[in-house]
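note to self — DONT lose this again. spent like an hour looking for the file last time. sequence + predicted structure for the chain T wanted, 414 res
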Amino acid sequence: MSLPALESTPDYLEHLQSHIIYYLKKESPAEKTLYNIIANAKGAYPLDVLYILKKEGITYIEDKQAYLVKDKVALLHLSKTVSSNRMFSDPHPADYDWRFDASTASFIVNHSIKNLGKCDGEIALLGAKTLYPLLINKGYPAKLYIKSSSLIKELKDAGFEHGLIEADLLNPIKESLKVFSAVIADPPWYNEFYEAFMLRSSELLHIGGKLYLSVLPELTRPSAKEDRARIIELASSMGLVFIDELEGELSYETPRFEYNSLIANGVFCANWRKGDLWVFKKENEIDYFIKQWPVDENEQWVEFTIGNKKIKLREKKEMAFKAFEFYPADPKGFTFSFVSRRSPLRKMIDLWTSDNIALRIDNLPLVELYLKNLEKGCTISEVSSMLDQDINVSSYEKNRLLELIKIIVTGQIQ
């Protein structure tokens, strides 16, 4: 716990320190829990908050919501007890997938529809997949635009059929333009996604329609204040006028991958992440041309779903005859210690699970073959039998591949 998180600059840490000290001066002793300090740190990562607390010798109260993990047994136990929404497969870090908690989802839906009659136009959801069932069940017409075909399939499997549109929102939408009364957008908190999601929102809204946008708090990362200012500038250039801000109103479930990342760094903290809700009104039609964002070759993946787990296998050319082996992508161990895309180690990952196990792999085609079998429903025992019959796989490779499969299926490191 002696070091701050990745790329936390001295100026940023100074601002965070000032905020924490100011916050603690206002609170009663009973409120000075580790969880409350983290949850009220304007988006700062828990490791940065703990760095400040330790550096300044600030005492705090540990409780069941946030505490330091002191031994490996506790770490493994906590890793097993994380729950998730059963309608959807587990969030994956490569998808930047953080989801609203239940109370926030209900709040956003009620807040956005309170001035809408049921015939006053549809609501578009950009990325906010957990809001779709709530709106449909309340009788409001809604369309969900989302890149993930697997999430659309999961909604259809749950009985939802209409208004599910597979769309990469970095690219233009060619239908249903200028017809929506409200758009609720929850983009990944990076500049290109904000620009794209806001432009798509402006294209979908009719004049007078409202955009409800999740916004990163000002201490989320060193550039957060500048990023927030840029959102206001982008809105103006897209015909959107800022009309309201609800600071810290959005709460996110801590996904399994982030639980495990924090636990690997020695801290347990549940549902700490907050976001601001900004509201814009569309007042003008303005032509805005978005630049073509370059494709990041390091973020091209083949996805597999095994039970509720998602496994991503990197797309890259590799000779299939290379001997199979796997290694941790992070020098600290099999659990990836810092999931932000700012981490230079992300490019080292060949296989990444929604449990946040990140590996380098020799012979990706072999792994892909057996992941396909697992996705089809094969058991570990059946895969073992297949490997026994595969004359191209050595006994050592078979044992290592079975070890890998057990790690993927259980989420536990042997």
